[in-house]
Amino acid sequence: MRNHLFAFIAGLLMSIGITYSQMIDPIKVKAFLDVLGNWDPTLLVVMVSALITYGIGFALIRKRTKPVFAPKFHLPEKRDVDRPLVVGSVLFGAGWGLVGYCPGPAMAALLAGSLGTLGFVAAMLLGFVLAGKFPLPAGTK
User: Fold this and answer.
1) Nearest Cα residue to 19 out of 140, 92, 112
2) Is the per-residue pLDDT at 135 higher than 80?
3) In contact, 110 and 124? CB cutoff 8 Å
4) Which residue blocks in 21-82 are alpha helix, DSSP H?
5) Helices (H), strands (E): how many in the chain?
6) C-alpha–C-alpha distance, residues 47 and 40, integer Å
7) Is the dihedral of CA 7, 120, 83, 129 positive or negative?
8) Interhelix angle for 83-99 vs 26-33, to 10°?
9) pTM of this prediction?
10) All residues at 6 or more sequence positions from 19 whose CB lies less than 8 Å from its CB, including other chains
11) Is 4 helix (H, G, I), strand (E, B) or coil?
12) What is the mean pLDDT of residues 52-64?
């Protein structure tokens, strides 16, 4: 139960942060991505701040022998750049650029009740289901 509480608190903090920084506003995100047009670099501050926070946090956890609320760390072991990673990255970037949402901000923006946001989240969830139903064949890279 305690793990769920801390996961909820972490998710709530992220939701508040991305809402406050306007990362849930597709117009703001698209303006950030428009580097050849009317570029709005303000979201760069949010991203750099997140990277700094992550870097400090990762450095701190590497000094621990185990996490506070789990028996062991679950760090990524895979380091190779393969076809699924590249294709997934391209699809993620294309979706982000086309609609101005990625999964986290879209979920945070659901409370606004926009039909566009609801449509995006529905399509995203359908994509999750389809990805689970139609995984890449074993050994595909």
Assistant:
1) 112
2) no
3) no
4) 26-33, 42-61
5) 6, 0
6) 13
7) positive
8) 120
9) 0.69
10) 108, 109
11) helix
12) 91
- Per the listing, tokens 């606004």 go with 112
**125: its two tokens:** 């969830």
Q: What are phi and psi of 64, to 5 degrees?
A: -90, 155
Buried b / exposed e over 58-89, threshold 16 CB at 10 Å, is eeeeeeeeeeeeeeeeeeeeeeeeeeeeeeee
Q: Check residue 2 and give its pLDDT.
A: 79
Which residues touch 66 (CB under 8 Å, ≥6 apart)? 72, 73
Which two three-digit tokens encode residue 99? 């609609």
Q: How far, in Å, are 16, 19, 127 from residue 115 at the CA level?
A: 21, 18, 18
Residues 6+ apart with CB under 8 A from 115: none
Closest Cα to residue 100, out of 112, 117, 85, 115? Answer: 117
52, pLDDT greater than 90: yes
- The pLDDT tens digits for 59-112 are 998 888 888 878 888 878 888 999 988 998 998 888 888 888 888 888 888 888
pLDDT at 136: 59
